[in-house]
Amino acid sequence: MKGKRIILVVLLVAGVAAIVLSLREGRTPRPSVVGLYAPSFHATDFRTGKVLSSSDFKGKVVFVNFWASWCGPCREDPDGSAAKNFGVTGVPETYVIDKDGILKKKVIGPDNWSSLQDRDFISSLLR
Q1: Is 108 helix (H, G, I), strand (E, B) or coil?
Q2: Cα angle at 11 between 22 and 3, to 5 degrees?
């Protein structure tokens, strides 16, 4: 009987610890879903150093690409907040957002953005 109590206490402590740790980490972002509004984000313009917000692109088509964190410019977002907001699971990942802020395409992995199909897709959004 004493052994069962010890196991119960250990399980209870482990459960409470798991809950506390999950609360400390904050809310887990949802993955971005094509057809819904894209998440808000902030990014650095590497030419000017200016921090840009997703609201700066209102009414424009936006191409967001996440790539390897070991590259120099990628380190400008050290906490990965933009990637967290989009729910990025790996690199590269690319998101295309239309003029209304709706996520139109999500590509996990590399893509040939110069292909006729992708160029037609982007052109259709720019009209």
Answers
A1: strand
A2: 165
Q: What six digits make up the tokens of 74? A: 């990628």
- Verify cis geometry, omega within 30 degrees of 0, for the bond prior to 78: no
Specify the residue for token string 């902030």: 42
* Structure tokens that stand for 58 in this block: 């209102």
pLDDT in tens, 37-94: 999 998 888 788 888 899 999 999 999 988 876 665 555 665 678 888 898 888 889 9
| pLDDT tens digits along 88-106 | 888 889 999 999 999 999 9
Beta bridge partners of residue 11, listed in sequence order: none
Global confidence as pTM: 0.70
The Cα–Cα gap between 62 and 47 comes to: 17
Cα 31 to Cα 34, 83, 86, 122, distances in angstroms = 10, 10, 6, 22
